[in-house]
Write a structure and sequence with these properties.
This protein is α/β, with parallel strands linked by helices. About 35% of the residues lie in helices and about 15% in strands. The protein binds 2-(hydroxymethyl)phenyl 6-O-phosphono-beta-D-glucopyranoside (P53). The site of 2-(hydroxymethyl)phenyl 6-O-phosphono-beta-D-glucopyranoside has 17 residues, from loops.
């Protein structure tokens, strides 16, 4: 009963949100380096290159590039047995389309991964976490087929180089998140599409579908190549899982929720079944989308089935067929309504621990693959008390209630869950808003949105709580 003995417990981050050192040791600019800082309710701006006088929080991150040994010691002290981070593509291929990689970038991750191992943490590595070299985004991101070749070269290079250091790989972070990006909430899509104000909504959607197809091909090649490089590799996809509930039992509400869930399910359907689902093919035909596929693409997709499915889980949403106002800026789906049964964070993310168990059951019963929760956590405003301590009891309550539901999914429902990593286990730059003050960490970082502060680290109350959770393998919550 309870969590399996080899359960992976740890934390999760992404290169651009914590490394900083954006232009050192040969690194090229990534798309995240031209994103300004936003605020709660204020979208980030994407600028045409780095502009004088603007605030680019990802340039500094929390300087993990220089502090990783000390930070990793804190993670080890908490008892993490795994750690999820991503490789910054533009450290390895500064522009993305070079023939040869940047050795200094490869060297950095070699040192980083060996430090995790030395401290007892299994690295879990995302190949592309919301970023690509800026040059590739300017070429159209994944709408451009050449970017598939660049990605494959990047993926092959790093999987070859780290074949004895890394076993767990994830392809594209929250690949499904781009389905919400028809709205100008995110300044670009995670497939690297920079908005074009002259494009019609139909053209925008056409580009997104093309990028998605190209990413499916790229991911499938990475899965196949990875298994050739090391048959012990376990390679997964990564989905942002936000279940959509019908607001009422009105049949139209139920149907609407099912239709909107397809925008999430379609990714896992392709990654685990190796083919496009019928409902998607029908939709492309009906809505006049014409996806350019090269001969052999469908076979490639068929041959690249993932070993496991990883997910982020933060919240659930609800929809009404009568239409309503949006409850969450980041999830500006049609017909979204507030769920009166649950509370939301200051950023409007609706807290729903049961929704995590519901999601795990839905995903496993649909896809029949082991699941890995690689992000879960809560963003909050926080300040230190006079002793420099953050007593983050509400974060403990959030994590406890979610881990309880994971336990039920394992014990009661029989879902094979491989691991659980807390998002932003150390305070990092928020992806959505660029803020430092939207904090997820179990470790506090003394820095503000403008980059002022000592950047000193200190453990919050939740870090001691989580340490005990790991030490008891989830028995004491
Ligand atoms: P931030 C929206 C909805 C769900 C997950 O997000 C999301 C987003 C993006 O805003 O992204 C993931 O920092 C993502 C991380 C991100 C984290 O959730 O906007 O994989 O990079 O930081 C939390 O509060």
């Amino acid at each position: 009963m309870g969590f399996p003995k080899d359960f992976l417990w740890g934390g999760a981050v992404a290169a651009h949100q914590l490394e900083g050192a954006w232009n050192v040791d040969g690194r090229g600019p990534s798309i995240c380096d031209v994103l300004t800082g936003g605020a709660n309710g204020v979208a980030r701006e994407i600028t045409d290159g780095v502009m004088e006088g603007k605030n680019y929080p990802n340039h500094r991150g929390i300087d993990y590039y220089h502090t990783f040994r000390e930070d990793n010691a804190l993670f080890r002290d908490m008892g993490f047995n795994c750690f999820r981070t991503s490789i910054s593509w533009s450290r390895i291929f500064p522009n993305g389309d070079e023939e040869e990689p940047n050795e200094a970038g490869l060297q950095f991750y070699e040192e980083l991964f060996s430090d995790y191992r030395a401290k007892g943490m299994e690295p879990v590595v995302t190949l592309s976490h919301f970023e690509m070299p800026l040059h590739l985004a300017r070429m159209g991101g994944f709408t451009n087929r050449k970017v598939v070749d660049c990605f494959v070269r990047f993926a092959t290079t790093v999987m070859e180089r780290y074949k004895n250091q890394v076993t767990y790989w994830l392809t594209f972070n929250e690949v499904d998140n781009q389905m919400n990006m028809h709205t100008p909430i995110f300044p670009y899509t995670n497939s690297g599409i920079i908005p074009d104000p002259d494009a019609s909504p139909h053209e925008v959607e056409q580009r997104i579908w093309q990028a998605i197809h190209n990413e499916f091909v790229a991911a499938a090649i990475a899965v196949r190549t990875g298994h050739e490089i090391n048959p012990d590799f376990r390679i997964g996809c990564m989905l942002s899982f936000v279940p959509i509930y019908p607001q009422t039992c009105r049949p139209d509400d139920v149907m609407l929720a099912q239709m909107q869930m397809r925008d999430r399910y379609l990714f896992g359907d392709v990654y685990t079944h190796g083919e496009y689902p019928k409902y998607l093919i029908k939709r492309w035909e009906r809505e006049g989308f014409d996806i350019n596929m090269e001969p052999g693409d469908l076979e490639i997709i068929q041959g690249g089935i993932v070993d496991f499915v990883s997910l982020s889980y933060y919240m659930s949403t609800a929809v009404s067929s009568e239409g309503a106002t949006s409850v969450s800026m980041e999830h500006n789906l049609k017909g979204l309504v507030p769920n009166p049964y649950i509370e939301a964070t200051d950023w409007g993310w609706q807290i729903d621990p049961v929704g995590l168990r519901y999601s795990l059951c839905e995903m496993y019963e649909r896809w029949n693959k082991p699941l890995f929760i690689v992000e879960n956590g809560v963003g909050m405003y926080e300040t230190c008390d006079e002793n420099g301590f953050v007593a983050d009891d509400s974060r403990i309550a959030y994590l406890r209630s979610h881990i309880e539901q994971v336990k039920k999914a394992i014990d009661f429902d029989g879902v094979p869950v491989m691991g659980y990593t807390v998002w932003g286990c150390i305070d990092v730059v928020s992806f959505g808003t660029g803020e430092m003050k939207k904090r997820y960490g179990l470790i506090y970082v003394d820095a503000d949105d403008e980059g002022n502060g000592t950047y000193c680290r200190s453990r919050k109350k939740s870090s001691y709580w989580y340490q005990n959770v790991i030490a008891t393998n989830g028995e004491e919550l």
